[in-house]
Amino acid sequence: MPTTNPRLNITFLPETATLLSRLAKQEKKSVACLTKELVLDALERREDVALSLLADRREREQKGKKIYTHKQAWGG
After folding, report:
1. Helices 31-61 and 14-26 meet at what angle, rounded to 10?
2. Which end of the chain is more exposed for a tag (fewer CB within 10 A), N or C?
3. How many CB atoms lie within 10 A of CB 60?
4. Where does residue 31 rank: exposed (0-12), middle (13-18), buried (19+ CB within 10 A)?
5. For the chain, what is the radius of gyration of the CA atoms?
């Protein structure tokens, strides 16, 4: 059955491919499944770093400006 998800072809160094294969075997997963999980984890971490940098920048820009609590901003 064909899939609607795009497929990617990735070439690894032999050492990396061996490591992925061993990890997949330990976790009783396919290499493709393990690799997909690792890529998604890495993307999530990068997103977290980017959002953290954005929050830090916004916090620096707020110095000296009035800050409202959640309750003040949204009522309740």
Report:
1. 100
2. N
3. 8
4. middle
5. 21
By the 8 A CB rule, do 31 and 24 touch?
yes
Q: Where are the domains of the chain?
A: 31-63
Token couple for 63: 């110095």
pLDDT by residue, tens only, the chain of 76 residues: 678 889 999 999 999 999 999 999 999 999 999 999 999 999 999 999 999 999 999 888 888 888 888 898 898 6
CA distance 44 to 51: 10
**Cα–Cα dist 57/27, whole Å:** 40
Cβ–Cβ under 8 Å, residues 31 and 21? yes
pTM of this prediction? Answer: 0.72
Q: Of 30, 35, 34, give the one whose Cα is nearest residue 11.
A: 35
